[in-house]
Amino acid sequence: MIYNHITILLAEDDPDDCFLFEKALQEITTTTKLVIVKNGEQLMDYLAVHTANLPDILFLDLSMPRKNGFECLIEIKEDVRLEKLPVVIFSTSFTRGNDLEQYLINTFSKMGALDYIRKPNDFEQLKNVIHQALLKLIERDGSIPKVKTDSK
Fold first, then answer.
1. 31 part of a folded domain
2. Are 75 and 46 in contact (CB under 8 A)?
3. 142 occurs within a structural domain
């Protein structure tokens, strides 16, 4: 399935992660606009300026300079202009499967995050988790047009 006309905002400070995200996105979507901000302050400034034209989805890293992703999520969900923005926590901040990670996943969900995704080390898995997040977005908000293709 290929998706059409999705604006994705990626809040990520690691240039390698940004590069891989962009490459993975190119392989699973078409007519997609990717905007990248490199820290929490840039994210909140971007959202303040683009309140009338928010992205379709935000992939939010937790470990960013100046303002971390957790602080940004709180601000986003407390702002009536931003609260409906779908946010996917996209991070390697916590050890897979431990109690703290599960607690935080539940906390992020209660705060209104669409999903929590642990960044995979494998490119194919990265494509898959991005694809699954976009599917979740479409299931939640069927207004994003889809284009059927023969690709995976």
1. yes
2. no
3. yes
Distance CA 134, CA 1 (A): 10
Residue 134: partners with Cβ closer than 8 Å, 6 or more residues away: 3, 6, 28, 29, 57
What is the extent of the structural domain holding 126?
Answer: 2-147
Axis crossing angle, helix 40-49 with helix 69-78, rounded to the nearest 10: 20
| Largest separation between any pair of C-alpha atoms in the chain | 43
Residue with tokens 């303002």: 67
CATH number at residue 70: 3.40.50.2300
Render pLDDT for 78-115 as a digit per residue (tens, 0 to 9): 999 999 999 999 887 665 666 776 777 777 888 888 88
The span from the CA of 146 to the CA of 30, in Å, is 10
Which pLDDT score is estimated for 150? 34
Q: Is 15 exposed, middle or buried (CB count within 10 Å of its CB: 0-12, 13-18, 19+)?
A: exposed
pLDDT digits (tens, 9 = 90+) for 107-152: 788 888 888 888 888 999 999 888 888 888 877 766 554 433 333 3
In a domain, 152, yes or no: no
How many separate domains does the chain show?
Answer: 1
pLDDT of residue 39: 96
